[in-house]
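2024-03-11 09:14:02 DEBUG pipeline.ingest accepted 1 chain
2024-03-11 09:14:02 DEBUG pipeline.ingest length=107
2024-03-11 09:14:03 DEBUG pipeline.predict start
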Amino acid sequence: FFHPDLCLLTLGILLFFISLYPTQIIMHAIYILECNDGTYYTVYTNNIENRLKVHNEWKWAKYTRGRIPVKLVYNESFETESEARKREYAIKKLTRKEKNELIKKES
């Protein structure tokens, strides 16, 4: 037995409860920072805005701590952490010249 009003009421109640528990979309990304000494730092994150902020506040990686300020020169986003980690690994294996070409292509 199908009643349209009952279906709408059920849908309304369901949407109300879903709205009480908002989901956070996690974006997986890799990024390359250029440090003040000209070196590159490549890493994975799921919160790029926060990570950039803490890099320049001396609160993050030991490598960048002594090389601030750093600036974002490249980033890519992925649906899964696994994809992002694989890309991070691939970029870390690139030569400096290859990284320069990758960065230049994006700018």
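2024-03-11 09:14:41 DEBUG pipeline.report The CA atoms of residues 4 and 52 lie 51 Å apart.
2024-03-11 09:14:41 DEBUG pipeline.predict end
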